[in-house]
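Protein modeling request. Please complete all fields; requests missing the sequence field cannot be processed.
Requester role: graduate student
Desired output: 3D structure, token encoding
Chains: 1
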Amino acid sequence: MARNRRRGATEAGPGEPGPATAPVDGGTAELVPDPERPRAWELLVDGAPQSHVDLDDPERLSFAYQRRLGHVADLAAPAGRPVHALHLGGGAFTLARYVAATRPRSTQQVAEVDGRLVEFVRGRLPLDPRARIRVRTADARAALARIPDGRVDLVIADVFAGARTPAHLTTVEFLTEVRRVLAPDGWYAANITDGAPLAHLRGQIATAAEVFPELALAADPAVLRGRLFGNAILVGAAVPLPVAELTRRVAGDPHPGRVEHGRTLADFTGGALPVTDAEARPSPPPPPGTFT
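Delivered output (292 residues):
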């Protein structure tokens, strides 16, 4: 999910180019064309922007949070080396398309619980048949349970039911399963949304710290100061992260961000407690007018 200005859409018939809407399990999905790119689209669910994808240039990431996830994908292994990637949350498969373009011969799995959304997106924005991307209609935790230990190099979690991350994907138990499927040098990256007083974000950092010894957080400084409801990318691993290079890339973005790690990240967490299944809640809803 990303902050963005919503544009109007009209209906197109099945298989036809043009804007389209469809009922999906999570509400109403819309595909809205990008007026500046002939084959680029924005996906919204119940008015909340979920993804942007450019079929002509899958390496082009329009949303700032997607670019930050792209930086993580770029740094998680030597440039161009194929990886085994797991995407929790499908959207328009933007990051899976990106990894397929930047790391040919990668094998990727996408777990998306909304089967009608998968059908809608694949019907209008088809995946390259040469890409090794397998899409499963499954809950994220159910998908994790089927993956053998140590199989995955990169897990990207970008899961929203409408505009909120489900509670069961915010916990120590969930991240313990993520850690189990990761290779010893594998990375986890999550898209987290929050606003003042940032209790959810702080809790998610504390939760990840229970599972991953190495953490970094990338976000717009206004989000980190609680002045803006928006996205933060949390990265976790069992091996040292290339924080300096990640910082350089995030700072050089068209919408510059900041990276926190080490002591400053611990201070930012402010004594927040880890979240377990017993007390988990969904991420907070965006304030009214966030997407208008």
